[in-house]
Design goal:
This protein is α+β, with helices and mostly antiparallel strands. It has 2 helices and 3 strands; from the N terminus they run ααβββ. The protein is globular.
Length: about 60
């Protein structure tokens, strides 16, 4: 799936214009990368946590 596909899906789900949805995705990715570069974990609700280190690790959220 490409970024444009994700932006289109998000736009449809949220009732947004595709450009607005793409901007929201960009901001979210920027926040995640910034946190990791600063040595902080990035929590992705419903998905898991990306932890920085010499190699970044991903711990998925386990279903209840």
């Amino acid at each position: 799936m490409r970024k444009s596909d994700l932006a289109n899906d998000l736009a449809k789900q949220r009732g947004l214009k595709t450009g607005v949805a793409a901007d929201q995705m960009d901001r979210a990715v920027t926040r995640i990368v910034r946190a990791l570069r600063q040595g902080r974990a990035a929590h992705l609700p419903g998905l898991g946590t990306i932890t920085p280190g010499s190699t970044w690790t991903f711990r998925p959220t386990l279903p209840d």
